Model the fold of this input.
Amino acid sequence: MDLFERIRLLSETNSLPHAVIFEGERAKEFSEFFAKTAVCEGENKPCGVCRHCIKAQKGVHPDIINLEPEGKTKNYKVDFVRNIKSDSYVLPNEADAKVYIFNDAENISTVSQNALLKVLEEPPKSVVFVINCKEKTNLLDTVISRATVFICEDEELEKISEETFNIIKTAVLQSEYDLLSLLHSYSSDKQELLRICDELVFSLRLLYRAKVKESDFEEYSEVLDKLTLNRILNAIDILTNTKKDIMQNKAVKIVVARTCIKLKNTLGR
Ligand SMILES: [Zn+2]
Done:
């Protein structure tokens, strides 16, 4: 099970932790996913379509507070942390949860961490603290022990299969009709359809990472140039919901048609 699935599972069982540390190259990516999951009001969080998900994707959700370290030392000043602490007792604006993300927190000073300790131990109801860092070596044991730690390693970027790339390319560059004719061939076999959904999600996550890395992925560039990170995430949410619909035995042809429309709207704008 990958980290995305683990976060989804925690959310489904109502056990999202109130303090989390994401450590590693992909820490920011997972922080965003986690925050979106925490504020989402749809089913199968993050659903990607509710008002909270949409605001989160645009980076304008008032209850997801992205914090950045200051100055050359990349520290979070102690006064700043104290302000965050008192702010966390104010109820969320729109969502049922309020998420504070300390980005790039690898250099946060001991004093500032100590200022956070108490609130990490007993966070106000509905508040989530997310710390992301490349390495947690400078984080205090007392901070680490109050949080759930997730390791987000950057694995080698694998190849996207020709079959799935062709579908994604069609969604991005061609018409809805082309996409529908392509996916139609999968609608007679439920298992086959579930398989292709899984592979599409996997490929979209690879594209997401290729985009984040901003390195030269010439083979995917015609598609990557046209996509934004949010649109890729949205497409992943759409396919996750498609899988759920198929498993709930909804009429496959309708599910496929609806998926095509949504994918085209998201990826092919
Ligand atoms: Zn949602």
Remarks:
- Residues 40-42, 46-47, 50, 52-53 surround zinc ion (CB under 6 Å).
